[in-house]
Design goal:
By secondary structure, this protein is an alpha+beta fold. The chain has one domain: Double Stranded RNA Binding Domain. Helices cover 40% and strands 30% of the residues. The protein is built from 3 helices and 4 strands, in the order αβαβββα. It has a 4-stranded mixed sheet, covered by helices on one side. Helix 2 crosses helix 3.
Length: 164
């Protein structure tokens, strides 16, 4: 058996378990999630994290034009909690973010989907103000990206039930 024949056989054997499990790619040709590009208009949350969340979501779904089929309202809340303080003045902060979102069909005005996503990240604070601010800013940006990933995944995974 030649090397290329073995590779083909190996690929077939690896794909065999997926054939019977009902696995369907979310973004395959003709899937409802694939048609969401440019069809979701997200509201702007007036904060640095809200803007980062909006940018990340528009990066995944495209910027919606006037012909967008859906409005997505986002409600973002972030809680900063100090966890520990050591003898050297080092604090550990945990940022917990929660975003509630609703998808509204513009044609009918009806809510077609609602869900919520939570994510957590952290940063360290020292007596150096500049370093602390940079760490916090990076953590807040990271939190916005994590929340955008979670929202995007939920929208894509459920699009078959509400996006027609």
């Amino acid at each position: 058996m030649s090397l290329s024949d073995r590779r083909t056989l190996l690929k077939l054997l690896l794909a065999l378990p997926l054939a019977g499990c009902g696995f369907t790619p979310l973004l395959k040709e003709g899937a409802a999630a694939r048609d969401l590009t440019g069809q979701l208009h997200f509201n702007l949350i007036e904060s640095a994290e809200g803007f980062a969340l909006l940018q990340a979501l528009e990066g995944r779904f495209g910027k919606a034009g006037a012909q967008a089929r859906y409005d997505v309202t986002l409600d973002l809340s972030i809680n900063d909690k100090t966890l520990a303080l050591d003898t050297k003045g080092l604090e550990r902060h945990t940022l917990s973010g929660k975003v509630k979102f609703k998808v509204i069909d513009r044609a009918t005005g009806k809510q077609v989907f609602t869900d919520m996503a939570r994510e957590t990240t952290g940063y360290s604070a020292t007596s150096e103000t500049l370093v602390t601010r940079a760490s916090e800013k990076a953590a807040r940006q990271n939190l916005a990206n994590l929340l955008a990933n979670a929202v995007a995944l939920r929208l894509i995974a459920t699009a078959g039930s509400w996006a027609k």
